[in-house]
Amino acid sequence: MGPQGIKGILIEVRRGPLPAREAVASVRCQLSAVRYLSPMPKPVAKTLKKSAKKSPNKPVAKTPATRTVLPPSGVSAYTEAEILALARPSIQALKPYVPGRSIEEVREQYGVKRIVKLGSNENPLGTSPKALKAATQALAKSSLYPDGASRALRGDIAAHCGVATENIVVGNGSDEILLNIALAFVKVGEKVVISENTFSEYEFSGRVLGAEIVKVPLRDLRYDLAGFAKTLSQKPKMLFLCNPNNPTGTYFTHAELLALLKKTPRTCLLVVDEAYGDYATAPDYPRCVELMRTYPNLLVARTFSKLYGLAGLRLGYGMGDSGLLRETLRVKTPFNVNLVVQAAASAALTDKAFVKKSLSVNVKGRAQIEAGLKKLGLPYLPTQGNFICFKVPCQAIDLCEDLLERGMIIRALKSFGLPEWCRVTIGTKEQNTFFLKELKSVLS
Q1: Average pLDDT, rounded, for the chain
Q2: Buried b or exposed e, range 165-181, using 16+ CB within 10 angstroms
């Protein structure tokens, strides 16, 4: 490896300008590495050879070896200008996804023993027992590749939804389904319409492909489908909708979606993310499977992360026209759905008792938290999901930090553009009681 090999050392890509001290350290480290990797100067080599011939039985004095020094942790061997020259311009506007805090992270930072996590909209009952049993059995086959087409799983999902197997695709979380739809159909410069104050994956899926993002503001903290209809004059390629919306929990109705579909040309794909649709109880919640039979440009994404408790195994699925979904298979990675989750998800669909209990806990917990927030005088939004969005009389990020010190994890919504709002997952009775108790203490 020659002196130029140092250019291949890449520890971590930094997005901000390097501080002066780190920049100097980086240069020094690169020079040290070059000295170590460079061939020995010819005059020095000749001198050592002559010395060895004159005194063959005497040990030759060794010159001190140059110490190898790598760039300090967190410091890139590339300058910011070099990185920007290498990277695609279209990704510079992307912001990394901000996940909820983990139990391990909070315990390490604050040292609290009891931690209740209601920040990531996971199932508070855990995972379906039938899914766990199937996953455990499937682990014995871990040396084998899974079925790349996920045929059995897709068949089970299709039967559950009342569609043909050809109308189902599966992916590593519904995030991958959404991205694959965009990868298959969105061209550079085409318009993708999304809402403000919603899940960031829709904007990501458009921007990463060089699409032009058109945003529609929420109206009364609800998706404004009439506003989406107005953007059709700009001839967008794709509309992304979230129902119920994450993070507000509000929803649009069957009639509202039907009205939009009637105005949307076949050349524009309408993608509805129903990650929380399993929890919806409103009688006028959209019946998307019914609508897909009339409007083939309607595509739906769903997940096993919430109701079925498989967030850690990652499985999402898409429903829609078989011809459109076939194109998404061209861009999916091989074996994107692992063997364990294929078995677990099929079993989860049969666990009616777990699903029934999960829905019951959600309905009761929603009433409990709403009553508690009302007692505290905090405004909240009616929800069709497994979480509640509420407003606080301060910066939500500060309140959530205070709660973390008490072992209570919820989500501040600054990253969603709602700095005075929080989102709490609906938990068990005990979890909800702990949340309301700690929230009252922090507010007082």
Answers
A1: 87
A2: bebbbbbbbbbbbbbbb
Query: Given this structure, which CATH class describes domain 103-117+353-443?
Result: alpha beta
Task: Give the HSE-up count for residue 284: Cα atoms under 13 Å, Cβ half-sphere.
Answer: 9
Query: What is the predicted pLDDT for the residue at 99?
Result: 79
Task: Say which residues have a Cβ less than 8 Å from residue 8's Cβ, sequence separation at least 6.
Answer: none
pLDDT at 175 over 70: yes
Structure tokens at 380: 């909240």
Locate 243 and state its tokens: 């129902």
- Beta-strand relationship, 168-171 and 116-117: unpaired
Q: How many residues does the chain have?
A: 444
Q: Which two tokens stand for residue 288?
A: 């998307």
Q: What is the pLDDT at residue 62?
A: 54
Of 378, 355, 349, the closest CA to residue 125 belongs to 355
Which of 438, 439, 434, 444 has its CA nearest to residue 124? 434
Q: Among 417, 410, 405, which residue's Cα sits nearest to residue 431?
A: 410
pLDDT digit string, tens, across residues 324-360: 999 999 999 999 999 999 999 999 999 999 999 999 9
Percent of the chain with pLDDT strictly greater than 90: 78
User: Which is more confident, 258 or 89?
Assistant: 258
pLDDT at 24 over 50: no
Nearest-angstrom CA–CA distance, 299 and 301: 7
The label of the residue with tokens 């995972």 reads 127
Domain ranges of the chain: 3-87, 103-117+353-443, 129-351
- Pair of tokens at residue 378: 């905090």
Q: Is 239 helix (H, G, I), strand (E, B) or coil?
A: strand
To 5 degrees, how large is the angle CA 264–CA 265–CA 271? 55
User: Between 1.20.120.80, 3.40.640.10, 3.40.50.150, 3.40.120.10, what CATH number should domain 129-351 receive?
Assistant: 3.40.640.10
202 vs 193: CA distance, rounded Å: 9
CB half-sphere exposure, 276, CA atoms < 13 A: 29
CA separation for the pair 187, 164 (Å, rounded): 29
Whole-angstrom Cα distance, residue 311 to residue 81?
Answer: 38
Strand partners, 421: 391
Residue found by looking up tokens 């920049």 in the block? 23
Q: Which of 9-13, 162-166, 228-232 shows the lowest per-residue confidence on average (mean pLDDT)?
A: 9-13
Side chain identity at residue 94, one-letter code: L
